[in-house]
Amino acid sequence: MAKNRDNMPQEDESIFDKLSSSFGGMSPKGDPGRKKMHFSFWYFLLALLAFSLIQDYIVARHTDTIPYSQFKRYVVAEKVKNLVLTPQRVTGIITTDGQGRKNWPFVSVRVNDPGLVKLLDAHKIKYTGHYESKWLSALISWVIPIAFFFIIWKVLISRVGGGPQGVLSIGKSHAKVFADTGVGTTFRDVAGIDEAKQELAEIVEFLRTPEKFTRLGGKIPKGVLLVGAPGTGKTLLAKAVAGESGVPFFGMSGSEFVEMFVGVGAARVRDLFAQAKEHAPCIIFVDELDALGKARGINPMGGHDEREQTLNQLLVEMDGFDATVGVIIMAATNRPEILDPALLRPGRFDRHVAIDRPDVRGREEILKVHVREVKLSAEVDLAKVAALTPGFVGADLANLVNEAALLSARRNKASVGMAEFQDAIDRLVGGLEKKNRMMNQNEKRIVAYHESGHALVAMSLAAADPVNKVTIIPRGIAALGYTQQLPTEDRYLMTREELFSRLCVLVGGRVAEEIIFQDISTGAQNDLQKATNIARSMVTEYGMSEKLGLVTFEKERHPFMLDTGSAPAKEYSDETARDIDAEISQLVEKAHERVRKMLTRGRRQLEIVAQELLEKETLTGDELRELVGSEFAAGKEDDSIEMRLNRKSSVAHV
């Protein structure tokens, strides 16, 4: 069946590309490397032509071909010498031709002439015969073409099948191998995850001095699974382990095992482990393990899945591993809940290392690593930058430092200042600033009052995070303005009071529009989504509803149910579902009424902040607190908040 070239798998497409480049055709992808190969083929042809011309006209002696009849006339005139007679031709030297040329070689095709010898004897011309070896000419005529085609065949096979993506190596592992000096990453390059580094220090010590453990009969864990959010440094930590231990490092992605051909993934797993045993002690690192190790039996289409074959082979190889060989298997994933339970049992991935988002001290240490090669001005306070970036992971902080450096270069500054870091944070959090976006004055006023409502409510509640900035400059795709709140410290628990305060801040923008314009806009859509999610979590997950009690209604998701495509069945009645909906609506409405009373009393401050925003477009937290005075900034409003009812010590994990 014919296959569409555009829909062909990558393996097949690379074969077509290599064949076309091998024959000197135009590369379909326009790759620079293939273009160079295309020109080298024509250079070869030009060199061959030049060599032939040199051989014919310079190296080889020039010989004239004359008719046989003319040759006989030269014989009669006795103007030939050194004749060599063969059955096919006559060669010799013409002493003179009457035109000034002397002693020039000639060749003539011999005809059936029995009287030639008598003629030569009559004119006393010396002649001799020549025996031609047939086997030598036959050998040359066969060997040279065969050798030529053999060379072409070898070149094509090496290009099409011999590379890492070739047909002949389809079952070979494509792991990137780094020698003990090729990793270049150590624990010095990893910051903000000290607990994870300490956990893996034992692995490094085993690879350096395995006899310390084996002499007591101990066994090192066969596998180490790194679990964490994207960008937290899982791959970097694995490379640091290899760099610290000084052993070869085999790096491969989980998706590289799975191909369209049956059995290829299992063959690559076998080849990878065979190579690792040859280079032991070493480290095998499989990135994005969830692409390979997804739980079996959850394929909605059913049937025999090639991915499951690959996973089975991986399980078998890990079982057959000798712990004393010195091969450590490390893997990373940000979706541990979908991994097959057989991978996580003792004897395979024995040790699980959780890599969490760094706290404020961890973020400061990560920033120190990334600013080593960056010229910073004296005003830059990395501790303050770390405090301004809650929730950022290592990859985010690396991007932040790079964005700040680019902004400084764009502004022709000699060093990176604090202003560039602040602008880079705004760009990463809110999106690209769009000062040129045209907004009519009415929409601009709505946005100004909307953001002022958020800011004033946040300032009036002691349980809310402090306001750091308010702006009405559009950013990103849909953000017409935003209010930035920064926590004073890293938090891992939230009380019911703090969650309710977040609800109040989220509805503050909508309430400000109601009070000022007696109408509402679509600008609060994202706020209402977040408020509804918080209220639902309070009711269904955290047990913070007095009517429903200390009950959770969210069923824990099982790994086998993630990819079935169907929602989990409810384990409560329709009447309970109505009560849940009523409690959610009541929480949001309670926050709405509380904020409406608050902003009605503080309408004067609302007007002041909105007018200042219309003039300056951006206000810092200090400017905002100076504008509204101590009435809102002191947080006294929080003492009378309706949330005080039945204030308890209930908390929620976030």
Distance between the termini: 54 Å
Any idea what the CATH architecture of the largest domain is? Up-down Bundle
Instruction: Please give the domain count.
Output: 4
Which structural class do the helices and strands define? alpha/beta
Number of strand segments: 16
Provide the gyration radius in Å: 41 Å
Portion in helices: 40-55%
CATH superfamily heading of the largest domain: Peptidase M41
Task: Give the low-pLDDT segments.
Answer: 1-39, 558-566, 634-654
The CATH topology of the largest domain, please?
Methane Monooxygenase Hydroxylase, Chain G, domain 1
Q: Please list the strands of the largest sheet in the order they lie side by side.
A: 6-8-9-10-7-11
- Principal-axes geometry comes out as elongated
- Portion in strands: 5-15%
Major beta sheet, specifics? 6 strands, mixed
How would you state the average pLDDT, rounded? Answer: 77
Number of H- or I-type helical stretches:
22
CATH class of the largest domain: Mainly Alpha
Fold and architecture overview:
The structure is a single chain. With 654 residues, the protein is an alpha/beta fold. It folds into 4 domains: 64-132, Signal recognition particle alu RNA binding heterodimer, srp9/1, CATH 3.30.720; 176-355, P-loop containing nucleotide triphosphate hydrolases (Rossmann fold), CATH 3.40.50.300; 360-430, Helicase, Ruva Protein, domain 3, CATH 1.10.8; 441-559 and 570-653, Methane Monooxygenase Hydroxylase, Chain G, domain 1. 47% of the residues lie in helices and 12% in strands. The protein contains 22 helices and 16 strands. Helix 9 (264-278) packs parallel to helix 10, helix 17 runs antiparallel to helix 18 (525-540) and helix 18 crosses helix 19. Mean pLDDT is 77; it is low at 1-39, 558-566 and 634-654.
